[in-house]
Amino acid sequence: MKNGLMARRREDICVLRLRARKILAELKKLFPRTGITLRYENTWELLVAVILSAQCTDKMVNKVTEGLFKKYRTIDDYARAHPAEFEKNIYRTGLYRNKTKNIIAAAKKIRDEFGGSVPDTMRELISLPGVARKTANVVLGNAFGKIEGIAVDTHVKRFARKFRLSAHGDPKKIEKDLISLFPRKEWFLLTYRFIEYGRNVCPARRHDCASHPLTKIYPNAAKIWPSARG
Length: 230
Known about the structure:
The chain is mainly α. It contains twelve helices and no strands.
């Protein structure tokens, strides 16, 4: 019985890996060139933009940071920012109170503990207020060319569950599943390809997606509509 279960698990993993391989090949055809759409001029601005992007569109973040980055030019400017005023500056990104608290606290920590430079390791980045693995992966990949994992945002989370690449809801567990299915050299752009597919081909709202390119690879996806929260 135990050997039978182990054989079934191996079979399931093989099926998943085959599906992942086919999905990756199709995504690379659909989106041969992709990448981050947030606008920034330095690593600190990238970090701020990614923090602001939580539950907010990149388009809105870019509108907000256009003025924000002109008003606050150095990490010390952010560290000394008045919370109430800063909240007004980023209000349109949502969750503005928590984002204000985290950005100002992160600026102070980087100024006081990291010599004013955004750290370049996963361990140090996730020690900053408001920075989890998703944000750290984006910063490490785009600013330092370091690929430590796969950034799992709401788009990636929905994609992974819709195509049954993961059965989990926790971003850390989803990242672990995706890492086991895709080659390391693909991790960095994989996030953006998942996002592109969700934005341009198969949005979150319910619709008929039976004819979509990836649904043809995994037909059951046409019936799966994961919750952004679940």
